[in-house]
Structure formats: C-alpha cells, structure tokens
C-alpha cells in the first residue's frame, strides 16, 4: 500500500510562520496593484503616510496624485451595518482618477443585483471633479459642462447603498483635498455668536445687509445671451416682472434667523440642522424663480448654487415646515417661491468669508435650441456676527438616515397613513366586519396597495435577513442609524414588532407582506379558474408547519458564524427574486419562485404556511400577544365547523379554537360571526326563534278562536 509523504513537524511550523509573515506583504502588494489601476502611468507608489493617511503616486519625480482608503476618513455604515471600504484616487487638481471597491457587505449586491452593478456605479466617478457637487440620480441625467452639479446614475433597488457610497467618496475626497490640494483649504471656521441679538424689522435687515436683495433684469439677460427673451418657453414676457428678483439670508446667526423666523421657528430650524450644518433662506419671484415649477422638495435645486473660493457648494432643500416657509417668515414680500436650503457639513462653508450666490439660467426655445448662462451675486456677511475658530480638518459625518427620510417623505407619510388605517380596522374589527361586502372590497384594495406600493415601489418587503441584522447588532455594536437607513422598512418593522405583542403575527403576514399579498391574489385566481384545491389532512398539515421553524433554527446560528453564508441560505425566501428584482434574475432563482407561487394555486398560501422562516420568527414572538380579539362563541366547533371550513390558512382547530401562531388575521371568521346570514349558530338560533314564534302565534290564534264560546263572567 502506498505511503503518504509527510513533512517534518518543524518544516510545517516554519511554513505556517512564513505564511503569517508574508500575508501582510501579499495584502500590500495587492493594494499597490489596485493603486496602479487608478494611476496607470505611476512608476512608484510611496508608502502610506500618517497625516493625512494617503499613498502618493509618482511618475519618476512628478506627482500624479493620491490614493486613500475611505475608512480612514469616514465611518458611515452601509445598509448591512458595516462600512463600505473604498480605494479612491485623486489628482492634484481635485479630479477623481477612479474608485475601487475593496470590501463591502451590501446584501442587494452580494445576493441580488450582483456586484457588477456596484462596480459599474463607482466607475462613474472616473474623471469627475470634486469642485462640483456630485449628486446621485436626478431627472436631468448626467451633468453637462454648464451645470453646477455633476449627476451620476443611481442603481435601481439599491438607493440606500449607492447614496452611502456617494457620501463616503465625497467626505473622504474633500477631507484629503482640504489638507493637501491648493485652493481647497478653507480659512478659519466662523461660528455665529449665540448671544448677539436685537429686534430688527425687514427694512433694518435689508439695510444692514443681513438680508440680501438681488434683481436680475431682463436687459442683463438679453445682453448676456445676445438677443431678446421673446419666444422662449415657460417665460411670460408680457409680464412687467423682472427676469428674477431674489432675497436670501444666512439663518444660523440668531440676529438674522430669530428676526425672520421668530423664536419658535428658529429653535425648530436649529433642531433640524445636524452638527456643523448651516441654512440659507432664498425667496424669489419674477419670470425665472430660483426653482422650476416641477421642483421636488428635499432635493438639490438645479438653478441655484452657493460659491466660495471659486468652488460650488451644493444646497439641499430642507422642506422646512413642509415647504410653508412664508407661514413663519415675518416679511412684507410675496415671493413666488420660498425655500430654506441645507449646507452640509462636509462643504466646510465659512459664512465670515466672501461668497456668492449663483443663478444658473437654462432657457428652452424648443426641443433643439437651448440657451445656458449664469449670474452671480457676491456678498459677505459682517465678521462681527461670528466667533472665529481654528479650522477643523475633518467634517462631521453626514447623517445619511436623515437624508433618506427627507428624500422619501411622501412615502413615509403614505405608509404611516396606511398603518393608522390598519390599526383602526383591528380596533373596530367587529363593527367593520358587519358589512361583509364592503370589508372584502377593502381587504382586496389594501392587499393590492401592499403589493404594488409597499412591495414593488417602496421596496418594503421584510425578510429574515433583517432578523439576522438585528440579532447581530444587539450582540455587538448596536447602532439605530443602520435601521433608520430605509424609512419604509423601519416603519414596517416597528409597527410589526408592536403588533406582535398586541394581536400576534397575523397583522404583518395577512396584511403587510407583499409576497403574502401576491399569494393571496393567486388564490383569487385559483377560485376564478375553479382550480381544484389539494386536500391536506390535519395531521399532515400539523407536521408540515414545523418545516418553517426548522429552517429558521438552521439559519440563525449560521448568521452568527457567517452573515454572508446566512444571506445566501436565506434565498429560501423568494422575496428578493419576486418583489425586489421582479423576476429579473438568473433562471434557477426565478424557477424556484415560480414553483412556490404555482403551488399556491393548489394549496392556499403554501409558502406562508409551510416554508417561510420570517413567519416562523414572527410566530415565536407573537406567542406573547396580549389580546385574542378573534371572538369565539359556545357553538364554535361544537358542533359548528363553518369557520374552520372557510379558514383557507388552516388556523382554526376542530374544537373551534384559533391557532394564533398560524393565523394571518384575515378576519374572515369575524365576518362570518358578525353576519346573521353566515354564522350557522346565529342562523340556527334564528330558525329556532322563528319556529317558537310560529308556535306561540298558533297557540294565540287557537286561544282567540275559543274565546267566543267562553262563559260570560257573573
């Protein structure tokens, strides 16, 4: 028999130590190769310096630029709860030479869209200058040379992740630029003096220059473009108004903000601003206000940009007071548009230094002819309003979660309203369920809303992966901001968690799960097509129910061992394929989802009943619910089986009890119970009452018939 060759133990030990010693060298060599991809002409890469932490790339003795890792400048967490580690290259002029993804844990790219979608996204940063604000998405598409911002395409289904990547790139690049590149370093920071205040009216604010008044006349515009404004679309040239009349003011200074917004409004503004953020009020009227008619609140204006040191600073609409700025403002003017814009911390805007407000003018004559120009109003606030401090090197991280909530404000409002309506349905379920037809129509409409809006549009499909993330966060480094990244998911999870301890798991599974709603609709199709349903015995049904619990028990320990592996195994859920990616995926995943949905045509909600690990996890927590509001009466199960026979989910036992671990709270049993023409016990009682009434009436008639023959009273 052949003998295996065996290395001496001392040699094996030596090889192990050699691997441990050389592994950092191999990692450094791999990083150098990545840097060379950012600077292909580099002949040498200098070792990483300490302050600031960058790698310098040279071609002979000529500096090509700097490479740096985002984790040295930003601790922004991705949707997975861990930072996205990027390698960023930038030349001495502030132009990005490229961005490479070194490490990430974003589920939508690892197990959904594929990593190539992320790589394609970061490729857009190549040759983009950080002298222009870089914004993800936008109706206008990629920026042209005349635009004040650079717009790059986002990634559908991965909005949160790519916004975090963009903020990470900007925060890291601007931090390096301010320390190493000429023209980027700002002067000493200025902080408004908090105690400097005196009451001033509008005229006094204008006189002191605290409110700037700027008028762009038609003659200025016509002189700049070289011809008349007549013939341009969206311009009412018959009006006597100027081309654009603007008022703007820096609101962080109490002597300005308090006088304009009032004490309560100023305090509210300071509460909404994050550390080191600043606010700018802009009012405008005329032919060309500072935002177009179709401006979307909580976005960056395309017509307006703040300038300082010849670098544009992006402005973000705060949608302050839900856009009703004039309700708070003590001003005699009646502008066409009024907004308060946020100046983010990473821009390092210094209000004590000279600045300018630029109006970008884009005039459309027709779909072929377009005229672009810009006008700038220079201004400088009184330095006496500020305390001058030493410049800070790194700005505070931008609160991405707040940006996401502001950007999706209307989705948040609509989902919040839907959750309030659902709460009302469960509180007054007995009153509502008396109207059988109306209730069924309402439930059908609500499920349609859940599938189309919550699921397909707002991407609010909860998943067992969310449970993994929560458990791991509770185990180590819990940070609520990770869960606030997606406002719709956060709202649904919060509502579901509370409802678990009130009514059990069924509120989510029966009303708020998009995939569950899709299965229910397939059940409607099966009824319409008269597809014969497979009969599953109570014994087999009870055994199959344990399958989803076994899947959950298998997934949770794996998550603590390897979150990546657990996320791959969580593909047992077809949610990502059907709801998140809408079946645009490789064929094995699509086939699996289609098979599960197909089984739902023959067994009502097959996946929910027997496979769903999310439902199993919710059922385990739902065991501690406070209320059992699905009313039962003495006749339920003894002998009446009407509700059991109509319960398509199989959650009503033969003795009439409801299994709340499996019930999806469709409320069909309550509809039956509260409708006299459906509840068997009520129908039987009514028949007995009618029979007794007829018998009593017959006796009364018989008594009346004998009454004439009775003897008269003495």
From TrEMBL:
GO terms for cellular component: plasma membrane. Residues 78-176 form the FMN-binding domain. It is found in: Cell membrane. GO terms for molecular function: DNA binding; FMN binding. Keywords: Cell membrane, Membrane, Signal, Transmembrane, Transmembrane helix. Pfam families: Fer4_5 (PF12801), FMN_bind (PF04205). The chain crosses the membrane at residues 409-428, 448-475, 546-566, 586-603, 610-630. It comes from the Bacteria. Residues 1-27 form the signal peptide. One of its GO terms (biological process) is positive regulation of DNA-templated transcription. This is Ferredoxin. It comes from Stutzerimonas stutzeri.
